[in-house]
């Protein structure tokens, strides 16, 4: 019997049951960076499953996230649009990053079209497992934005909190809140033990089995967060790494990915399943080494628009379609997964709005290189742009002197004079240009007087000018915090603090 759904791509490829799985690793203060995978040269080779996934699929060396922070990057993945368009930014201060803590008032606007919403038109069932991070008030619930199922949390697993001033972060099964971190879903901060990755793995395997049995195409967004501080691993992985607790968390994620891929093979649907692995921002060097990863040779980390903040490990896997062992230099972005998925499902991206993601299938299946720029934003400011191998910084900033003097350093041990600045430096009339091929660490800006600089900027200026004149920013969603919107089940005698509406900054 033929499965009821088929999909075709713009390339004329036809397959039954085109399904996709996105594996999105996490981080606010400890995400999985480029230097954490054996296949990228991490010396202790502790990611055998991801390395194998790459050897059976395609490794992307020039793949980016849309923002160096978690919430905006997730909003971009699911909308195919830059955070400045979909509203995941703040106008409270110039070039400030922002995210959705549990007292944020905003979230994903109804006017945004999310990938699972669109995939429904092709009969897809979508599930998110893990962290949502696009707002936690009822109107922002993932099941109101196209997902059919959810197991996970609207936020990071920060805590434990005292439940008086601040409740612990809730977890949901679909519409229903089923418990809270630290209370019902334990994380032992002393030992680092938690069973959450195992629970998320089982959820994924069960969902895949169910969809296979009902012959219904699916989209699974597996958004695990064990590598986000406070990092955790289950007992069998504790102490298994040579890199401390962070390494243990990476090992458990790696092991789980191996199990998911084997499950697809066992069910006989691996050739119908497009799987993509990447991360939401670069490793948080402020938490390294115990709670944070490595960005290899790249400059700085999470929060910054240097390569260490936004260049991500990325692997595409689709046996029988993607040539094994491929390596792509295509400039890619998490927003491309939106457009690529629609193409896999035989759908067109919405035409009534600007979509920043491109369809990567020609790059993945035919080895074509598609010309496209990468924009690096912090909040509402375009900080840098990459065109080909050249990257031009229009603004440079790591963090403020005030933060830096408190010991918060996004670029530990990496002071590049005039580049990793602690004041926001404007270079809009004469951007700093780096050649990322010769100088991936962004240490040696090209001389302004050189022909190479002139040639690079001629090309880049046109692209930036066009980007700026056509930019229509969305309504900023991350400006306001209010403790009254926190998800609470406290007895009424335990009143939350009075409603306080404050400006949202980096941390509300
Ligand atoms: C993890 O699960 C095991 C087996 O059910 C249990 O013994 C252990 O207490 C759990 N650990 C945590 C931190 O919840
Ligand atoms: C980085 O180096 C420059 C030049 O040597 C110096 O002026 C600046 O204070 C240094 N920054 C930090 C954070 O040490």
TrEMBL record:
PROSITE patterns: SULFATASE_1 (PS00523), SULFATASE_2 (PS00149). This is N-acetylgalactosamine-6-sulfatase. Signal peptide: none annotated. Keywords: Calcium, Disulfide bond, Glycoprotein, Hydrolase, Lysosome, Metal-binding, Signal. It comes from Melopsittacus undulatus (Budgerigar). It comes from the Eukaryota. The keyword Cell cycle does not apply. The active site is at residues 70, 133. It is found in: Lysosome. Its EC number is 3.1.6.4. The modification 3-oxoalanine (Cys) is found at residue 70. InterPro entries: Alkaline_phosphatase_core_sf, GALNS, Sulfatase, Sulfatase_CS, Sulfatase_N. The keyword Metal-binding applies. Its cofactor is Ca(2+). Homodimer. Coiled coil: none annotated. CDD domains: GALNS. It catalyses: Hydrolysis of the 6-sulfate groups of the N-acetyl-D-galactosamine 6-sulfate units of chondroitin sulfate and of the D-galactose 6-sulfate units of keratan sulfate. GO terms for molecular function: arylsulfatase activity; metal ion binding; N-acetylgalactosamine-6-sulfatase activity. GO terms for cellular component: lysosome. Belongs to the sulfatase family.
